[in-house]
Amino acid sequence: MRHLCLVALVLLGSLVAATPALAAPHLSKSQSRVVSTLVNRFVNDLVLRRDLADGWTISGPDERGALTRKEWVSGRQLPVQQLAVVNNPRTAWYATWKTRSEIGLVVSLKTGHGANAVMYGEQMALQKLHGRWVVDGFYTDGIFRLGRGHSGSCVSSKCKVTGPADYAPSAGGGVATAKPRIGGRWGLAVLFGLLGLPVLALVGMGLVAHTRNRRAWAGYLASRSG
Question: Fewer CB within 10 A of the end CB, N or C, for the chain?
C-alpha cells in the first residue's frame, strides 16, 4: 500500500509539472488582489458569521437562492456552513479555471489545532455581474481530519476523509458508513492532492452548472454541525 501511495503521488506530481497552464490559470496581480479580498470577506462574513449583511452584498443569485435579504440576515437558513476558521483566507485559495466572467477556486479552510485539526476543501465559484465580482457558489467538497487516530472514508468524525460519495446510499439503502473505502494512507494522498496539486481540481469546471445541487450537501453538513 505504501508503494502504491508513493507511485500515485509521483504520477500526480508529474501531471502538474507537465500541464502548468491547465493546473494554474493565470490571474493578473489586480485580479489576485480582488479574489483574495473577496475570499477573505466571504469567509469572515458568512463562514465565521461576522457580517451577514455584507455577505449578502457579495453573494450572487445562485448562492442566495430563494432566500430574501431578511431571511439571509437572520442567519437561520444560510447555505454556508459555519466554521471556526484559524488560517488566513487571503492565502488559502488557488484558481482552478476561469473565463472572462467566471473564476473557479479551491479554498482550504482549517479549523482546530493538533489532534483536533481539520481541513475543509471548499469549492467556490466567482462571477462578474454588473461590473463587480460576487461569490455565486460555495460548497464543501471534502473534509480531512489531520490528527492521529483517524482512518478510512465515511461520514463519521472517526474517519480521516469525508467526501460527497460518503453520503451516497449504500447497497442496503442507508448511509455508506459500514466499511471505509479509502485507507489512511490514501486519505493523506487525497489531502496532498487537494492542497498541493491544483490539476485535480479541474473537475470543478462543472461547478457553475451544478452549484445548486452540490450546495444541498453543504447544507446537510451545516445541519449536522448545529
Answer: C
Bridge-partner residues for 32, per DSSP? Answer: none
Higher-confidence position of 30 and 179: 30
- Nine-digit cell string for 166: 460518503
pLDDT of res. 221? 52
Beta-carbon contacts of residue 75 (< 8 Å; ≥ 6 apart): 49, 52
- DSSP labels, 33-46: HHHHHHHHHHIIII
Least confident of 69-78, 122-131, 186-195, 200-209: 200-209
Measured N-to-C along each axis, helices 184-196 and 2-18 cross at an angle, to the nearest 10 degrees, of 10
User: For the chain, where are the alpha helices, taking DSSP H only?
Assistant: 2-18, 20-23, 29-42, 52-57, 61-64, 69-74, 184-196, 207-225
CA distance 154 to 51: 33
Q: Rounded to an integer, what distance in angstroms lies between the CA atom of residue 25 and that of residue 16? A: 12
- Residue 125 reports pLDDT greater than 60: yes
Beta-carbon contacts of residue 199 (< 8 Å; ≥ 6 apart)? 12, 15, 16, 19, 22, 23
Cell numbers for 218, please give them: 453543504
Does this model's pTM top 0.85? My answer is no
SS3 state at 133: strand
